[in-house]
Amino acid sequence: MSQKQKIKNCPICLNDSFIAIETGVHQCYYCGDEVQTAITCTMGHVVCPVCLDSNFKQRVIRHCKNSKAEDPSVISNVFLSSQLDTKGGTEEYFLITAVLVTAVCNFKKQYPSKELLLEMALNRFNIIPEQLVDQHGASGAALSAGVFYHVISQGQIDESKVWQNSNLLVSRCMDRIARLNTPPCTLRDILLVITICVDFLSETLQINLPFPQRLICQRNQSPYCPKEGCIFLDRSSRYPLFSGILGN
Ligand SMILES: [Zn+2]
Ligand SMILES: [Zn+2]
User: What residues does 18 pair with on adjacent strands?
Assistant: First the structure.
């Protein structure tokens, strides 16, 4: 076991204990690369050295580059079903941007342009001021949706339409998050905004991504979940809180 692996917690479960296993080729949880390794965390997770040294956003990009999935819930579940391992702030919302860019590129079989679009998305995302999200009533999740729409619709529709639609999408996300009026939850906001984006893509760009009718939070049984009023609990339907309350 290298010194570096000794001092890092497993990014998947945040467990700090690594154990020796039989040396062999194992697949990295994040990027899918096959790595020769002799250690896993005690939960059996394998992370390649590059992903282990990467930050959350880099890991998301490494996964998205190799993913062929067209359903954004499948891509996001890799991260949402494990610990997010971020430094807090708005970082985790990059998942929304990257997952949706990836799903659209995969759906359109535009694999060669995916890497460039992900880099563009990261650059745009990185200039969202943290203070704007913390102190000005803006939702980082909603702004991440705006980044996604800008990147994916450039060259597809008129420039003025890109601007208008991005604002419509961000305002729709802000409105729905604000009206939930339940304890804040990052995972809920991520799932909600991805759901809204899937519908908005269909409405404005006629891109109909495969997406489950019932979206269930993979961590709704964890101590992290606020439970009370969560719209993505197991019992929930796709828009349980919206019918009769928020409309569409
Ligand atoms: Zn682990
Ligand atoms: Zn990896």
Answer: 41
Interval between CA 34 and ligand 1 midpoint (Å): 17
Ligand 2 center to 235 CA (angstroms): 34
In three-state secondary structure terms, 205 is helix
Identify how many contiguous H helices and E strands the chain contains and give both numbers. Answer: 10, 2
Cβ contact 15:43 at 8 Å: yes
**CA proximity to 65, closest of 97, 92, 98:** 98
| Of 46, 45, 19, residue with least CA distance to 35 | 46
Task: State the DSSP code for 92.
Answer: G
One-letter amino acid of 112? P
In the reported structure, the alpha carbon of residue 40 is separated from the centroid of ligand 2 by a whole-number distance in angstroms of 13
Q: Do 149 and 162 meet the contact criterion of CB atoms below 8 Å apart?
A: yes
Tell how far the Cα of 126 is from the centroid of ligand 1, in angstroms.
28
The tens digit of pLDDT for each residue in 159-174 reads: 999 999 999 999 999 9
Ligand nearest to the CA of 13: 1
- d(Cα 45, Cα 51) in Å, to the nearest integer? 12
State the pTM of this model: 0.87
Q: What is the pLDDT of residues 57-116, one digit of tens each?
A: 999 999 999 999 999 999 999 998 887 777 777 899 999 999 999 999 999 999 999 999
d(C-alpha 106, C-alpha 120), whole Å? 17
Q: CB count, 10 Å around CB of 112?
A: 8
Question: Rounded to the nearest whole angstrom, what is the distance from the C-alpha of residue 242 to the centroid of ligand 2?
Answer: 39
Q: Which residues are registered as beta bridge partners of 27?
A: 34
Residue count of the chain? 248
